[in-house]
Design goal:
Layout (H helix, E strand, L loop, with lengths): L2 E8 L3 E4 H8 L7 E4 L6 H13 L7 E8 L10 H8 L6 E6 L4 H12 L5 E8 L8 H5 L3 E8 L5 E10 L5 E2 L8 E2 L4 H21 L9 E4 L4 H8 L6 H4 L15 H11 L6 E7 L2 E9 L12 H6 L2 E2 L3 H7 L15 H6 L1 H4 L3 E4 L6 E2 L16 E4 L3 E10 L9 E8 L4 E5 L13 E12 L2 E10 L3
Parallel strand pairs: 2-14, 4-5, 4-6, 11-12
Antiparallel strand pairs: 1-7, 1-8, 2-3, 6-7, 8-13, 9-10, 12-13, 15-16, 15-17, 18-19, 18-21, 19-20, 21-22
Length: about 475
């Protein structure tokens, strides 16, 4: 039986209180706070870091597919799923697919993976969204940034699929055309009353009927919603108890994470699930998707790489709207950079840049990065063995650069001593300058470095290990 084999989430470290946003524009605050992607993060990096946790120690070469879902893909014409697969070091002979242009792209990707996965195989579904609400609007306060990933397979299943259901319907609730920078919606409660409420009700009722179940059979439900208040209104009459049967939407701590929201909520439900539990997941957008899973005994021995709840607790608060505006390029500022790139370089050094491959000397076993023809330790001249470098290590040395212009100064350049050998020279992220200390444990995180030649240039940075 196909089902969920593993899962992972990624919540950015930064938070922006909604009071700060409201004060900037002189409008009412919706309360709470929202997650904010750093200036070097986007929907792709959010999804990649969630996917890395979902994959864990599993061999990426065993994947038969990688699906990426987002309404804010970094490219208008270029597949993001293949970039994710390359970063994970997956086999090139796999199916990669992008799901986009609707908020239910995350659940649609999940249901498609459940339909396509074959015995003994696995498909990784990952999603990330960093949506831009128009400044001086409720959407700006409501939206939050996050990434979620679900590994679907048939072996060692944590939660086997019981049934799925989808409904599709043309509806102009929230939309954004090619010419528009921000999402648009009809004023008032038009979308929630005639769109969200109907689609969620139809999806939930449809999957329950298909599986011959009632709402009383559901132990916990992960239902995407623009806010907790809207969710409560939509569930009236369905028989689901919001307090005991439905996962909180994290609206007051993360916000509406778009396509990633149902996957993040599903991960939160799985973190507390018990064998035998029936759990429901539902997403909406131009219709609705729903699925019911039965939790297996394997859940008892599973340990999540990074808990959703711990990521919510570990945070850095933005005290001003100005810094958020710089992260989102709402204020025009030309940052000078000498970084350049071409498709030729990215092709030539792809293995070193994306999956982070290094070299190992076959004579003295010294691990080194980048890959040289001649060993830097013993001088062996016949080439190095290509290996995948570890993702964790300790800080060997560093320097704070206050001269390089950046939205989040200073830029900390660091040399990381990787676990198992080898050193890499990278920048640090998500860490105040005064916290940086030699010997501190670090993990590598996939980030956006710069834009050159009209390209998004990605590489790895280091950040403190937070559990």
């Amino acid at each position: 039986m196909a089902g969920i084999v593993s899962y992972g989430t990624y919540v950015p470290t930064y938070r922006l209180p909604r009071d700060v946003m409201a004060k900037e524009w002189g409008i009412a605050s919706l309360g709470g706070e929202r997650s904010v992607a750093n200036f070097d993060e986007d929907s792709l990096t959010l999804a990649v870091n969630a996917a890395i946790d979902a994959l864990g120690e599993r061999d990426p070469q065993s994947l038969s597919g990688v699906f990426f879902a987002s309404t804010t893909s970094p490219y208008r014409e270029k597949q993001a799923a293949v970039t994710v697969a390359t970063v994970l070091d997956a086999n090139s002979e796999i199916r990669t697919m992008d799901f986009t242009d609707t908020l239910r792209a995350g659940t649609s990707a999940l249901l498609t993976a459940l339909d396509l996965v074959s015995p003994g195989k696995s498909i990784l579904v990952c999603s990330g969204d960093s949506r831009m609400g128009e400044p001086d609007s409720q959407q700006e306060q409501t939206y939050g940034d996050a990434g979620g990933a679900i590994l679907v397979g048939t072996d060692n299943v944590l939660a086997e699929v019981v049934g799925t259901y989808s409904i599709s319907q043309e509806f102009l609730g929230t939309w954004r055309t090619e010419e528009q920078d921000y999402t648009r919606s009809f004023p008032g409660a038009f979308e929630t009353k005639f769109g969200y409420n109907r689609f969620i009700a139809a999806a939930v009722q449809g999957v329950l009927k298909k599986c011959n179940l009632t709402t009383k059979d559901i132990a916990n439900a992960a239902i995407a919603a623009p806010s907790q208040r809207v969710l409560q209104a939509a569930l009236r009459g369905l028989g689901l108890d919001v307090k005991t049967q439905v996962q909180d939407t994290f609206w007051s701590t993360i916000g509406d994470a778009g396509t990633a929201q149902p996957l993040v909520l599903l991960a939160a439900v799985l973190e507390r699930a018990k064998p035998g539990d029936l759990i429901l997941v539902a997403g909406y957008g131009d219709g609705g998707d729903a699925a019911i899973f039965r939790v297996t005994d394997a859940i008892s021995g599973f340990r999540v790489a990074r808990s959703v709840f711990s990521q919510i607790e570990i945070k850095r608060t933005l005290s001003s709207y100005g810094k958020y505006a710089r992260f989102r390029k709402l204020m025009k500022k030309d940052y000078t950079t000498t970084d350049v790139s071409t498709p030729v370089v990215l092709l030539r050094d792809q293995k070193e840049i994306l999956p982070l491959h290094g070299g190992k000397c076959p004579k003295c076993n010294t691990i080194q990065f980048p890959i040289h023809r001649i060993c830097v330790e013993c001088g062996y001249r016949d080439g190095l063995q290509e290996i995948k470098l570890p993702r964790r290590g300790t800080l060997f040395t560093f320097t704070h650069d206050y001269l390089t212009e950046t939205p989040d100064p200073p830029t900390t350049h660091a040399v990381i001593e990787l676990d198992g050998g080898g050193r890499v020279y990278v920048q640090m992220a998500d860490c105040e300058a005064e916290r940086v200390q030699i010997g501190m444990p670090l993990e590598l995180t996939f980030r956006k470095y710069h834009e050159g030649y009209g390209l998004k240039n990605y590489f790895w940075k280091a950040r403190p290990i937070n559990k």
